[in-house]
Specification:
Strand content: 15-25%
Distance between the termini: 50 Å
Helix content: 25-40%
Strand order of the largest sheet: 2-1-5-6
Mean pLDDT: 82
Radius of gyration: 22 Å
Low-confidence stretches: none
Largest sheet: 4 strands, parallel
């Protein structure tokens, strides 16, 4: 709620020094012209266009995909977000066209951050966005400069960073199947069930039946 966010601003939690366990960063999602015209004090601009990326998937380019880890790192680092930061996502004022565009992209920002592993406990969404905040408190036109962080979504992964690429695109999957041999060092699991697997399956794949059990004799690589 706007009252809670204003309290965090008053208490100095917004853009507090790195390492503060109650550090807060406000991300105002929208376009630069509207951000300059007025935003919540201390909030950092997040260009809604940065939440989509054209990426190669399969045989061609696909638009409006989730940004790569590198691009999400850039968003987080430029906003001064570290591992202790609570992120508050704010839809910008509804004076844009269409009026609900920034509401959509604020939801998109939440999805992108959850996709890349930001804990849901660390992500908040301001009810009513900038419009609601402006009904009770003063908005600002001053530019906001924050010190960049060195945080990466890789820091959220608890396993070996050498094996961080656990999300595989269609194009990468095609390459794995095409290059598969009996001596390959990876498994391909087909989760459609043994009946469908018996009908047709990817070369080298291992069937997983309806009860999520591997077929007898499966050897992990």
């Amino acid at each position: 709620e706007k009252e809670t966010l204003n309290q965090w601003i008053t208490e100095g939690k917004v853009n507090a020094p790195f390492g503060s366990t109650d550090r807060v960063v406000i991300l105002t999602v929208g376009d630069s012209a509207n951000y300059v015209a007025g935003h919540i004090p201390g909030s950092v601009f997040l260009d809604r266009n940065a939440l989509n990326q054209t990426r190669i998937d399969g045989v061609g380019s696909i638009t409006n995909m989730v940004p790569s880890g590198t691009n999400v790192d850039n968003i987080l680092q430029n906003a001064g977000i570290d591992k202790y930061t609570t992120i508050v996502l704010v839809a910008h004022k509804s004076t844009v066209t269409p009026a609900d565009a920034n509401n959509y992209y604020t939801g998109r920002a939440y999805y992108v951050m959850r996709y890349w592993g930001i804990p849901k406990e660390r992500i908040k969404m301001l009810n009513g966005g900038t419009d609601a905040y402006a009904t009770a408190y003063t908005i600002d036109t001053a530019s906001v400069s924050v010190s960049p962080s060195t945080f990466s979504v890789k820091n959220l992964y608890k396993g070996s960073l050498a094996n961080f690429s656990f999300k595989t695109s269609i194009g990468q999957m095609i390459g794995l199947v095409r290059n598969w041999t009996s001596s390959s060092t990876y498994n391909i699991f087909d989760c459609r069930g043994t009946t469908n697997w018996n009908t047709a399956h990817l070369t080298g794949s291992i069937a997983v039946d309806a009860d999520n059990n591997l077929v007898t004799g499966t050897t992990f690589k």
